[in-house]
Design goal:
Blueprint lengths: L1 H12 L5 H18 L3 H11 L7 H16 L1 H6 L30 E5 L6 H9 L5 E4 L2 H7 L11 E5 L6 E3 L11 E4 L8 E2 L4 H4 L5 E4 L2 H14 L4 E4 L10 H4 L1 H9 L4 E7 L5 H5 L6 E6 L3 H7 E2 L4 H14 L2 E9 L5 H15 L7 E5 L1 E2 L1 H10 L11 E2 L5 E2 L2 H16 L7 E3 L4 H4 L7 H9 L2
Parallel strand pairs: 1-2, 1-3, 3-7, 5-8, 8-9, 9-10, 10-12, 12-13, 13-17
Antiparallel strand pairs: 4-5, 6-11, 14-16, 15-16
This protein binds iron/sulfur cluster.
Iron/sulfur cluster (SF4) binds next to strand 6.
Amino acid sequence: MIDSLKEKIEKSFLFRPNKNQLRDLERLIFEIIRRENCSLDGIISYLKTNSDSEKYNGRNKFFALKNALIRRRFPLTAEKEKIDTKRIFLNQIQQPLKDNYTVHEDFKPSKIFVEKEVKNSYLVRNFSRKFPDIKIEEINLYSDYLNTSRFHISRLKEPIVFLVKEKWDFLKPCPCTKVHLSCGYWVLNLGFGCPFDCSYCFLQCYANFPGIVLPANIEDFFTEFDTLEKKLKKPIRIGTGEFCDSLALDEITEYSTKLIPYFKDKNVFFELKTKSNKISNLLKITPAKNIVISWSLNPLSIIEREEIATASLKERLDAARKIQQKGYNIAFHFDPIFYSDAWQQIYTQTISDLYSQLTPPFAWISLGTLRSNRRLKTINELRFPKSNIFYGELFVGEDKKLRYPSFLRRKIYENMVKWIKAYDRQSPVYLCMENKDMWSILQKSSSMEIEKYLLQI
Ligand code: SF4
């Protein structure tokens, strides 16, 4: 677009933008076209009537054009407040990768590596039984693979499996995010990587290798937790779904069959969080009320476009119903929530689907609007040409992440809480990675208060 844009701007506004100015204008126009499906000529006509550019020269003409584009690109925010241009993230336009590895619904590894120390583990036996035609290659450490193999983001989802001995990163408090109220969650680090491919997944920014790492020494996690448990003065909430999906590979790893019997007598709420319907192991285990199985929910149109290879909404709700009938505690996460013109209609429908099929109370329901670091916007454009999540009204927030502005997040949370409460006044609803101001919607003002509310103590 850049050549024709430069020409059109020079001709229409008698102004020759420099390289950086042209890049900003091009990015804004590109995003407006993605949002509105309009033409470049249509935007040039809009600028002629809405920018007052004829009153200015040089840099000021550029700012007049840029500000007019910002008003069109962020219409809801422009109507509410003066937009601080420093909070707009205008990255270079990316051409989608031609060789990006795409995931398949049925996960099948292309290669399996096992660290020597765990070559006799049950996990190795499970993988060789399930995939007898895939050779399992022995390595000293999986970091050896990282040192010898060049990584490119297009390879992120190549289905390579590393069966490893985890040595230190077992357990940690959820880092939440700067300047936000934490809910006191703990993360059990049972693997890194996921067979699903969500366009907003933050793992894309942190992975420096393809595939999935799975620890084979799960008993060491229990030893580590035994130590932590002695120091605990109150119950905690703990879960495994931070760097992986808790159940997507459970039929192979069988982690749930070890975790649930271990945690069922502990003074914790132990959560397995998923976008899958892989519940066969859970149905064979005796449930306990402190074991929480939870599903992330989004409207079907979003699941199909942004959560590649995950279970459909119906499959998730069907699985949740079976799990609830079996006697487990269940929970739901509306996270991330995306704002669009149709958001009210699609989210009220999803909430209605949830409550028509499942009976509250649930252990908890979390709400979180889209947030991401800036690099993810670039990765998203490279890997997900059909995704449109970064063309919403996102600004760089206090924690340097891209988020919807406060007034929009407040509107989303207030409405989601209202729609949920219309069906269910018992399940605790909480906000994920939000500030004190947003938490006032739920009349909570400190992390301690939030923890007590979620633990119902
Ligand atoms: S299910 Fe979770 S871990 Fe897996 S790709 Fe989606 S967001 Fe990432």
